[in-house]
Amino acid sequence: MPVNLSAPDAAALLPIAGVRIGITEAGVRKAHRKDLSVFLLDEGTQVAGVFTQNRFCAAPVQVCREHLAGGQPVRALVINTGNANAGTGADGLARARATCEALAGLLGLPANAVLPFSTGVIMEPLPVDRIAAGLPAAIADAQPAHWARAAEGIMTTDTVPKAFSAQAMVGGKTVSVTGISKGAGMIRPNMATMLGFLATDAAVAPAVLQQLASQLAEASFNRVTIDGDTSTNDSFVVIATGRAGNAVVESIDSDEGQALYQALLGVARLLAQAIVRDGEGATKFITIAVEGGRDAAECRLVAYAIAHSPLVKTAFFASDPNLGRILAAVGYAGIGDLDQTGIELFLDDVHVATKGGRNPDYREEDGQRVMKQSEITVRVGLGRGDASDTVWTCDLSHDYVSINADYRS
Amino acid sequence: MPVNLSAPDAAALLPIAGVRIGITEAGVRKAHRKDLSVFLLDEGTQVAGVFTQNRFCAAPVQVCREHLAGGQPVRALVINTGNANAGTGADGLARARATCEALAGLLGLPANAVLPFSTGVIMEPLPVDRIAAGLPAAIADAQPAHWARAAEGIMTTDTVPKAFSAQAMVGGKTVSVTGISKGAGMIRPNMATMLGFLATDAAVAPAVLQQLASQLAEASFNRVTIDGDTSTNDSFVVIATGRAGNAVVESIDSDEGQALYQALLGVARLLAQAIVRDGEGATKFITIAVEGGRDAAECRLVAYAIAHSPLVKTAFFASDPNLGRILAAVGYAGIGDLDQTGIELFLDDVHVATKGGRNPDYREEDGQRVMKQSEITVRVGLGRGDASDTVWTCDLSHDYVSINADYRS
């Protein structure tokens, strides 16, 4: 059961002119699952992406980077679940390329106009034959209104599809933004989430779109964590079809650039937080805000130490205000000259610790009250500067263990 | 149920001349638990210690450092369970000092001849009155033969006491070594484990004993991890009473120094590994050996990334050879220029991955066979140098979640 998150209303998702999406059941790993999606992009569409920093990055990630660097306009995406095509060596690269060739052949495009994405089990050979056999049905299914189906088509251990839309005025024109994501486990994005796709009909210069993609990833997907495991396949793609009729956005810092960025960021944050709300076994949505640091980087160190501590996460699961575990995580986060007597700790509005010790006014029942909520904010004051940063995470429950002990069976 | 570890045979543990140990039930947190231990040390005994690097180090850790730095000979240790006296600010420091004063008063010693140790819940006030009231009974109980009782007296969520002995010839004399430890959770020592005490009757120069303590911690307690949570209270103490009659060991590098080091190391490693075997919810004992690194530090980065991955740990729990999760952890360990095509992966004798991809000869049933064992060695070759290092850890089971969701109740 995800935390305060339900399936999107398909009718409320905005189609993006210039983007058509088709889904089919290709039997990649199991029969009768929507496991193959294609995005067909009109001519003139700009595409930018950011990808995992895992050194064991998957074959499709390597091919995406190569195709984007080549400068050939991207006209199609192909996405399979059930198999990550990671840890597959040279053979995996060949299979990722063969997938692109199969789709490009059907569309009359060069192979490097296609970006491939895979998610699922690591170190198994990708069944290219079954994917290629499924492509004609996926192309035949392609419609602008298929965003909700696409959100379903990229799910793995997710329990609900994730999709959001927004609109903004950019240079006097209404532009639309729609995005989808998937997550659930192996989530500690380091550049982007497992899979996130965001499209707008705004017209954006290519260099600006890449800047937008990096800034968006940094402020959304790169601030969530479920289990600290950075995936081999993290990919976040921003698509701009240019069909809204606005003058091309030439700078992020212009009024138009900022209006577009805020609309994109709103959707990207909802998508990233949706991944946490639907984290494997999650029962609580936790915001960890660290302030008073010398720089944002040390605030993140502390926030991630808290977010990754199995002891803190199991205490949230149990609604147990065993809050000394949070202080312990602050202490081992890696700030070598941290002075414990400067530390303040709040749980929502409850002032738990002051000057590194228990706040004399803190009462266990106040901590208990907040711990029982499904949404909790942990606020840590480091007392050594003006910087701050925020990370979103979830608790660690029996279901996380069950899901990951049973994942392949 | 610990992994291949049973309670020590009290009769097989060697008493150490010059050390007497007494235990009592002081009701620190709950009634009818052996929760208070004292070590009484004869005059002439040398004591060295290493302590947690957690910046939220507990009050007793701060007092231990202060007393050891002062140079006053240490004549007694006082150890309580049920309360960690961490995250307790200035009041916690005062209570740790009051504990030392209470024991010193009963023994006719200065307060700084006592080292205090606490383990248990964080951010609760230490009940000094109950501890002081229990001290006379603990002193009355003191006997050289009480090592097994001491191992029991320092337990928290441990399921079996941990104690080992060894003997060595040092300068023509037989010296004895006996040690105890506790662990179970919040275990990722960074200088030492939660609590470890090692005593020998060898005569050792004070500076050499401190060197020995640091080297021993580095090669034993600092190489185990259960959940990645570095405790606020980690303390490892080495006691040398000098009663074996050997000439004082003046250098670690001498034949005598090495003979003593190896005997101490044997016991320290068994104690450290015993903590993993009895890790909270542990069902498997995992050795992670990383070789072919440029230096030992990068081998440790990789070993800890594997050891801390919740996905890898749940796969071990499930006996599921979902070994791509290990490659993913290698990839995000933090070696920025790691070349995935140089990576080799073995599970015991089974060659799972070669050149960064699945070994063509690898068969799932071979991986399955090893994963079902209670003791497993993961060997990773980085293919970029001659350095290596090893870390010991356990799996992540439902019981870890249960134990930590219920710890305070």
Automatic annotation (TrEMBL), chains A, B:
What enzyme class is recorded for this protein? transferase
Catalytic activity, per the record? N(2)-acetyl-L-ornithine + L-glutamate = N-acetyl-L-glutamate + L-ornithine; L-glutamate + acetyl-CoA = N-acetyl-L-glutamate + CoA + H(+)
**What residues does the record give for site: Cleavage?**
A192, T193
Keywords of the record, alphabetical order, are:
Acyltransferase, Amino-acid biosynthesis, Arginine biosynthesis, Autocatalytic cleavage, Cytoplasm, Multifunctional enzyme, Transferase
Sites where the protein binds substrate: T156, K182, T193, E280, N404, S409
Instruction: List the residues marked with site Involved in the stabilization of negative charge on the oxyanion by the formation of the oxyanion hole.
Output: T119, G120
Where does this polypeptide localize? Answer: Cytoplasm
Looking up InterPro entries in the UniProt record yields: Arg_biosynth_ArgJ (IPR002813), ArgJ-like_dom_sf (IPR016117), ArgJ_beta_C (IPR042195)
At the top level, the lineage of the source is Bacteria
Keyword check for Chaperone, yes or no.
no
Q: Name one GO cellular component term.
A: cytoplasm
Q: Which Pfam families match?
A: ArgJ
The record's listing under SUPFAM superfamilies reads: DmpA/ArgJ-like (SSF56266)
State the Gene Ontology terms under molecular function: L-glutamate N-acetyltransferase activity; L-glutamate N-acetyltransferase activity, acting on acetyl-L-ornithine as donor
According to its UniProt record, the EC number is 2.3.1.35, 2.3.1.1
Query: Matching PANTHER family, A to Z?
Result: ARGININE BIOSYNTHESIS BIFUNCTIONAL PROTEIN ARGJ, ARGININE BIOSYNTHESIS BIFUNCTIONAL PROTEIN ARGJ, MITOCHONDRIAL
Q: What does this protein do?
A: Catalyzes two activities which are involved in the cyclic version of arginine biosynthesis: the synthesis of N-acetylglutamate from glutamate and acetyl-CoA as the acetyl donor, and of ornithine by transacetylation between N(2)-acetylornithine and glutamate.
Oligomeric form and interacting partners: Heterotetramer of two alpha and two beta chains.
The protein here is known as Arginine biosynthesis bifunctional protein ArgJ
Q: What species is this protein from?
A: Xylophilus rhododendri
